[in-house]
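Table 4 source record.
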Amino acid sequence: MVAACAVAGTLAACGSSGSGAPLLTWYINPDNGGQATIAAECTESADGAYRIQTSVLPRDASSQREQLARRLAAKDSSIDLMSLDPPFIPELAEPGFLAPLPDDVQTRVSKDVVAGALAGATWKDELVTVPFWANTQLLWYRKSVAAAAGLDMTQPVTWDQLIDAVRTQDVYLGVQGTKAESLTVWINALVASAGGKIVENPTAPAEDVQLGLETDAGREAARIIGTIGKEGLGGPGLPTEDENASLSVFQGDKGSFMVNWPFVWSATTAAVADGTLPQSLVDDIGWAIYPQVTAGTPAGTPYGGINLGVGAFSKYTDLAFQAAECIATPEHQAFYFATNGNPASNTAAYADPAVLEAYPMADVIRQSLEQAVPRPQTPYYNDVSIGLQQTWHPPSSVDPDTTPTTSTDFITAVLRGERLL
């Protein structure tokens, strides 16, 4: 499946594609080379219709957003394809920076796609990007700790059950409490799991945006985060703890339960292979769907990943859509999942033997993606996310009686131009 002409960075034409074929530039997020390999494969299979070269964006999502938004605002015609973080899609779709997907393309790229990825690729009830890979957080647990706490992990568990288990076992709960996007992910998942929404009317103008934090769902989210923070249940490093730090805690002597993305599995098994962690640790790891806020109500699991957008000012939009469809085939998604650890948005990829071998929890990932809830879809997402991080940090300061109101007032004032972030 891997094309022999794949090279890092920019890809030269190969096979029968010919140097005279239109050159499409695909702006990608940094990865382990999987997107460059897929670009080479699609160049080869295009048989001279087009060539794809990749251009790597900055590592962090906010810088990716800033670079693409500025260039699209300047009507940069060199942007043919983009790997887009889902929360920033409305900001690019609203001003017309994304070429509209033809109806037949929408039909094809929607087939067999998990619900969370379809929701994240949609703006104003219209599919505006091509679902590529999707991501979600699972509940990872140490089997020994769960057994000692008397938890039946074959059944859904709640945050309160985890909090009680951590209290009694003298261990730490792996969560992301740093002032960064990972904190927004946590807040959104809790609010969604409690049946609420952070933004009630996402298509409204900035001055009319209504937030859903001063609700039972918002207060429940604040109660859970505040309890974990105030009681030190996440460990002393919680205020600066990101996904990698959470994994380190989980792998340590006080590891117990952790919410985190699937990369933790490949990272842990690789460490065992290198001899830096014992095999007994992997043997003690289990996985389940994200914790519920209310017992009996399925969690609104986190959603992430990458969608493919076509630049509205590209000279080759028709070819770019052809290329996007090639990139996002179930076969390419399965390859990307198995080799780069990025879960597929297309359910057909989950039957691939290489995926099942690399990720024995693939079925749970797929289930989680079916019930995943995107972060607030609004053109003003950056203001909303940073506003949440400013007012829900550190976790020990979060209070269900005050934080939802403080956060609402601050973000609303920012959106109205009355305050600065």
